[in-house]
Design a protein that fits this description.
alpha+beta, 70 residues
Amino acid sequence: RRLSVLHGVVPVEIKDRKDFEAQITVADEFLIARGLAQPGDYIVVAAALPLGQEKEPNTIRFHRVSTPVD
């Protein structure tokens, strides 16, 4: 929520999945479906690792959005 004051930042909460890579896949699908990103775009992901422990974000990853695999 605090990031929304920065220009161009759209905070999106993704519910916990079994692992971080699964969450990234869900995020890619979410962003593409809503027109917020296209395959090949770069995004910044902030996460609290390990997952499921209700911590403050402690990890930042620069990620290239990929096409969902059926």
